Amino acid sequence: MEIKAIKYGDDLWKLVIDYAKDCSWGAGAFLAKQMEENGFADWERVFVATDDLQIYGYCTLAKRDCIPKVEYTPYIGYMFVGEEYRGYRLSERLIKKSLKYAKTLGFEKVYLVSGEKGLYEKYGFVKIEDKKDFWGKEEQIFSIHI
């Protein structure tokens, strides 16, 4: 299995759209729509855990996330690993690949938004503040120095 960074037009693009549409997490449909509309620009990427044409999970590295009016960038977002593949540290591998890519772009910090407590801290993220997302839900913003 490997972690690949993909962009619009890459061979896996359509497969990841289909996987995201059908995944058990509601946000997957938002990612699929954003990918279908080519909503990733410049250096933004979708990272996918894959073995040939089998998709196990994904995340993104993008300019923005679901928190309005913040200056932070970039964000790891849409983190998802299929239920049957959890426990194999795929989230960690997706995060590491995203951070490595962000570093090649010259970023010194990367941010992440989550309501989960104790999950991303184990990967080195530190909570920096709480903010409401676009829908009014209180979320945590984390950062990591790379």
Quick overview of this protein structure:
The protein is an alpha+beta fold and 146 residues long. The chain is built from three helices and seven strands; from the N terminus they run βααβββαβββ.
Structure description:
The chain has 146 residues and is an alpha+beta fold. The chain has a single domain (2-145), classed as Gcn5-related N-acetyltransferase (GNAT) (Aminopeptidase, 3-Layer(aba) Sandwich), CATH 3.40.630.30. The protein is built from 3 helices and 7 strands; from the N terminus they run E-H-H-E-E-E-H-E-E-E. A 7-stranded mixed β-sheet has the order 1-2-3-4-5-7-6, with helices on both faces. Strand 2 and strand 3 form a beta hairpin. The longest helix is centred in the middle third of the chain and has 15 residues, at 90-104.
Strand and helix layout:
Layout (H helix, E strand, L loop, with lengths): L1 E5 L6 H10 L4 H10 L8 E7 L2 E9 L12 E7 L8 H15 L4 E6 L11 E7 L5 E8 L1
Parallel strand pairs: 4-5
Antiparallel strand pairs: 1-2, 2-3, 3-4, 5-7, 6-7
Helix pairs in contact: 1-2
Features:
alpha+beta; 146 residues; 24% helix; 7 strands; single chain; 34% strand; Aminopeptidase; 3 helices
At the fold tier of CATH, the topology name is: Aminopeptidase
Spatially, the strands of the biggest sheet line up as: 1-2-3-4-5-7-6
Domain count: 1
Distance between the termini: 24 Å
CATH architecture: 3-Layer(aba) Sandwich
**Rg result:** 14 Å
Going by CATH, what is the homologous superfamily?
Gcn5-related N-acetyltransferase (GNAT)
CATH class: Alpha Beta
The helix-and-strand class reads alpha+beta
Strand content: 25-35%
Order of helices and strands: EHHEEEHEEE
> Could you report the average pLDDT, rounded to the nearest whole number?
95
The number of helical elements comes to: 3
Query: Which consecutive residue ranges, at least 5 long each, have pLDDT under 50?
Result: none
Please give the largest β-sheet.
7 strands, mixed
Helix proportion of residues, in percent? 10-25%
Counted beta strands = 7
Shape: globular
